[in-house]
Amino acid sequence: MVDLENVTKVYAGPKGAVRALDGVSLRVEAGEFVAIQGPSGSGKSTLLLTIGVMVRPTSGGVVVDGTDVYALPPGARARFRAEHIGFVFQMFHLVPYLTVLENVLLPTLARPSGHPGQAEASALLERFGLSHRVDHRPSELSIGERQRAAMARALLNRPTLILADEPTGNLDPDNATAVMNYLTEFHEAGGTVVVVTHEALAAQYAQRSVRIREGRIEEANQA
């Protein structure tokens, strides 16, 4: 499903080069639920975005669903990302001037017609208890509702892989548990989940925990 081979990512910083990832090799099998843990600045979010075809590595190979994703031209990369990967972020990344329904429909913009549309989006919003919020803007939602809307958006295109970056970081315990249960349902239905977290609650749901420090994988243990 996901295969990283000796991946390095170097950013240019005001005080010189910053090596966010340093020779990372990692394999995530189809149907796995993996937690990536590490201190702030360890490279875990860069690792997730590299898997998600959003941050091109400086060197090394990234294969997702059998495709060498960074060998694709930009347009094909965007389509691949939309068709195969769903994202859930700590800050939700909902577009403030769009309604909840319009936010959920955003992933369909990169796909041809005939794929999931408004009916499927409405069904997901009902599943997540947001059917009464479809015409509301994100600012009118509670924190938990915003994250549930983000979950609906992540699932709309029926991805094979969900990448979640601190998905419970802004949530109270009840909403955090609900989000992790949604990710578990996706996993139990055959989906692959990679979640970046510093919280014990989120890591407890994973089958395997990977620790990263200073851009290097330190250990990969069964949960």
Number of separate strands: 10
Strand order of the main beta sheet, please?
Answer: 6-7-8-3-9-10
> What fraction of the residues are assigned to beta strands by DSSP?
25-35%
Shape: globular
- Helical run tally: 7
Helix-strand category: alpha/beta
Low-confidence runs (pLDDT<50, min 5 residues)? none
Order of helices and strands: EEEHEEHEHHHEHEHEE
Compute the CA-based radius of gyration.
17 Å
Give the SSE map:
Blueprint: E1 2-13, E2 16-28, E3 33-37, H1 44-51, E4 59-64, E5 67-68, H2 74-84, E6 85-89, H3 100-105, H4 118-127, H5 143-155, E7 161-165, H6 173-188, E8 192-196, H7 200-204, E9 208-213, E10 216-222
Parallel strand pairs: 3-8, 3-9, 6-7, 7-8
Antiparallel strand pairs: 1-2, 1-4, 4-5, 9-10
Notable characteristics:
single chain; 223 residues; alpha/beta; 6-stranded mixed sheet; 4-stranded antiparallel sheet; 31% helix; 30% strand
